[in-house]
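One-letter codes give the sequence; the integers encode the fold. A sample entry reads:
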Amino acid sequence: MGLEGDAQLTWILGSSRSGSTWLLRMLGELPHVATIDDPHLGHHLGVWRPIPLAWAAADDEPELSTLLDLQRDREEFFFNDRYADAWEPALRQLIISRFDAQVADSAPGARAVVVKEPGSQAAELFSRLFPDSSLIFLLRDVRDVVASWLDAYRRGSWAEPNGAFAASRGGRVPLARWLASVWLYRTEAVERAVERHPGPTATLRYETLRTDPVAEVARVCAHARIPADAPTVYSAVSAHDFDRVSPARRGRGRAIREARPGAWTRELSPAELDAVVSVAGAKLVELGYLRAHELRRLRRVA
């Protein structure tokens, strides 16, 4: 069927290392659901500025942005606002054609297409291009996100073949600051997209998803208009139970790591934690992950 037909499109948005792959795999167990795992659209359309090296080299704390933010009013910039009426419909059709080609190979006849796109700095653009799609915002504590990514920046990790590298001891703190900046930018971009999106939306937290995955997956299905009864959802969740994953396929340096909220307390050094909180502490308080007096105490200690 595909997106050219009547298939419903759903985006899983938020930060990487937030359980989005796990959620995608559970939804992929449901009947007539096709999944697309990180097409990296956001990384192409939302190129970061400045480059990550700035977090180690700049005199002052850099302010993260994207090329789209900085050049949207520039006449010659390809994806500018002035010519959006020309390029946005063409970009929408390109995305549909590419997704449908994959769906035709992997799940012909699918009635729902779920796309996991952690490059969510482009969330507002996705919303404009696909106003009838569903936006699922998966949120996770930035401290656990950064701890997970720092673990991936080690020699021999799952991420090394995809462009990660072994971070030096001295490089971990600026890397943590950069990763926290990315989390903050993406979180706020998805919040804006969800607030204004004309189609269905749902926000869920990784911590709640871990506690009650059956209820949360059922809630996602309801918002994303994916038909699934209780036994079907239970079966889909059970197929990807963390405890069923072989110990040889999980743990440090693995894509499936701990699946334990709060693991950052054992993994982030005081300097790394200070770097994360200095960037995203106010957002942690706003989201309820941290109390205001706890943030003040952390800043005094730092």
Observations:
- The chain is about 50% helix and 10% strand.
